[in-house]
């Protein structure tokens, strides 16, 4: 139990790896200065005593700055993760080895450069320069620059929700394997199905490759998941229709690329999903709701749907050159795009006149360009929008104002065309 406590403490402590790097930098300085007494590396590489002193001083100063930068970024990530996800995820971030290594490398380089300056001796004849120590410091600082660029990418990727969720999931899987070892008892795999070797979100499908593989095996493939779906490890990925004996399961699974999160390689709906998330988030901030941001998202959603409204959408059926059906893939249809675009924003912004008016303007415009068979989905959204506005308002005047189509949300629509008894009476009297 004592050993476990020690291992757990070392694993969860942020400072252990950096301290080891600092000790390594100290040892490296002592070794290089003891090996080279000033004649191993020519002065043309390291410079004279003044130049070498300046080089080591600048390296030490820069590494001290970079160490502080890494610590600041780490604190920022912890704060964002605690505020956006969960306070219990802090331990996962503090155990991040790349952050510990980057912090340790910068601190170790600082220690090496600082201690190496003591070995520079200045005399009336010019003095001696520990060339090996200076050259080592130069190599270390170049490594630190490359590490800094890599680390900035790493810390940026770590702020993604998928990365944080992935950390927790991987640690949970390792704990699962340790607590409940063994793969379990499962039935023999069905040769008529291709299983997913790894869990992940489908973000690219090589349709041509799958069609070619099905043609060679003289069968048909039915993909059971759509682009953007999460496929668990070991789940059936493809169903083989016909004789499966000639099918290479590995080749089929490699033609379907999965990853930690959705991308827009082949997933148009994901781009709309992100715009909807922005709009929904801006409408769910409590007293600090931001309907203007939601309207800006609706502007872009409207533009995207307008481009889709008349385009032919793929039916998910792929044939070989002879016209034989070889592959079927689940695809997003027009009704699905319309529901992604409007359902959640309508529900979240039902009480916002600005949002309702902008949604109505988008729907009415889309009805003018959509193909006849696609109008029903838009008309249904208009009906639901009218019902949402009626349920969210008490005053008839507010309800009528919300049902005016306005491309700006509130501002560009001519509300003088609205039926208003007082205004109409005044207009009649003026006439």
Compose a concise summary of this entry.
The protein is α+β, with helices and mostly antiparallel strands and 431 residues long.
Query: What is the residue-mean pLDDT, rounded to a whole number?
Result: 86
Strand order, sheet with most strands: 1-5-3-8-7
Helices and strands, in order, run as HHHHHHHHEEHEEEHEHHEEHHHHH
Given the helix and strand composition, which structural class is it? Answer: alpha+beta
Helix content: 55-70%
Task: Report the count of strand segments.
Answer: 8
Distance between the termini: 95 Å
Approximate strand percentage: 5-15%
Uncertain spans, ≥5 residues at pLDDT below 50?
416-431
Gyration radius from CA atoms, angstroms: 32 Å
| Biggest sheet descriptor | 5 strands, mixed
What is the count of helical runs? 17
Coarse morphology = extended
Write the layout of secondary structure elements.
Blueprint: H1 2-12, H2 16-35, H3 43-46, H4 49-84, H5 90-94, H6 97-116, H7 131-158, H8 161-179, E1 193-195, E2 200-205, H9 207-217, E3 220-223, E4 230-231, E5 236-241, H10 249-254, E6 256-259, H11 268-282, H12 291-308, E7 317-319, E8 325-328, H13 334-348, H14 353-369, H15 375-392, H16 396-402, H17 421-430
Parallel strand pairs: 3-8
Antiparallel strand pairs: 1-5, 2-4, 2-6, 3-5, 7-8
Helix pairs in contact: 2-6, 2-7, 4-6, 4-7, 6-7, 11-12, 11-13, 12-13, 12-14, 13-15, 14-15
Task: Give a verbal description of the structure.
With 431 residues, this protein is α+β, with helices and mostly antiparallel strands. Helix content is 60%, strand content 7%. It contains 17 helices and eight strands. The protein has helices at 2-12, 16-35, 43-46, 49-84, 90-94, 97-116, 131-158, 161-179, 207-217, 249-254, 268-282, 291-308, 334-348, 353-369, 375-392, 396-402, 421-430, and strands spanning 193-195, 200-205, 220-223, 230-231, 236-241, 256-259, 317-319, 325-328. The strands form two sheets. A five-stranded mixed beta sheet has the order 1-5-3-8-7. It has a three-stranded antiparallel beta sheet with strand order 4-2-6. Strand 7 (317-319) and strand 8 (325-328) form a beta hairpin. The protein is extended, with a radius of gyration of 32 Å. Mean pLDDT is 86; it is low at 416-431.
């Amino acid at each position: 139990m004592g050993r476990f406590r020690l291992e757990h403490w070392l694993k969860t402590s942020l400072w252990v790896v950096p301290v080891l790097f600092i000790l390594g930098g100290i040892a490296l300085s002592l070794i290089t200065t003891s090996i080279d007494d000033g004649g191993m590396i020519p002065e043309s590489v390291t410079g004279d005593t003044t130049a070498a002193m300046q080089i080591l001083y600048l390296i030490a100063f820069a590494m001290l700055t970079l160490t502080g930068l890494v610590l600041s970024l780490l604190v920022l990530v912890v704060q964002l993760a605690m505020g956006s996800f969960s306070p219990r995820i802090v331990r996962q971030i503090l155990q991040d080895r790349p952050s510990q290594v980057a912090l340790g490398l910068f601190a170790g380089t600082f220690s090496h450069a600082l201690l190496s300056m003591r070995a520079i001796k200045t005399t009336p004849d010019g003095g001696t320069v520990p060339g090996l120590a200076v050259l080592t410091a130069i190599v270390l600082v170049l490594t630190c620059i490359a590490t800094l660029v890599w680390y900035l990418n790493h810390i940026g990727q770590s702020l993604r929700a998928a990365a944080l969720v992935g950390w927790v999931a991987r640690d949970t899987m390792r704990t699962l394997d340790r607590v409940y070892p063994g793969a379990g008892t499962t039935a023999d795999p069905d040769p008529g199905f291709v299983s997913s070797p790894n869990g992940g979100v489908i973000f690219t499908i090589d349709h041509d490759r799958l069609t070619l593989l099905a043609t060679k095996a003289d069968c048909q493939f039915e993909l059971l998941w759509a682009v953007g779906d999460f496929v668990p490890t070991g789940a059936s990925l493809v169903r083989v229709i016909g004789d499966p004996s000639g099918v290479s399961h590995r080749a089929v699974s490699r033609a379907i690329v999965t990853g930690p999160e959705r991308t827009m390689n082949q997933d148009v709906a994901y781009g709309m999903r992100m715009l909807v998330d922005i709009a929904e988030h801006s409408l769910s901030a409590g007293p600090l709701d931001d309907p203007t941001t939601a309207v800006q998202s609706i502007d872009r959603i409207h533009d995207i749907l307008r481009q889709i409204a008349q385009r032919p959408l793929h039916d998910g059926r792929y044939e070989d050159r002879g016209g034989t059906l070889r592959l079927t893939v689940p695809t997003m249809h027009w009704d699905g795009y319309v529901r992604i675009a409007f359902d959640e924003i309508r529900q979240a912004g039902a009480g916002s006149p600005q949002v309702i008016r902008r949604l109505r303007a988008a729907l009415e415009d889309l009805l003018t360009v959509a193909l006849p068979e696609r109008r029903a989905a838009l008309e249904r959204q208009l009906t639901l929008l009218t019902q949402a506005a009626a349920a969210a308002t008490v005053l008839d005047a507010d309800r009528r104002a919300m049902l005016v189509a306005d491309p700006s949300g509130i501002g560009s629509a001519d509300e003088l065309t609205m039926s208003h008894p007082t205004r109409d009476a005044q207009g009649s009297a003026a006439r």
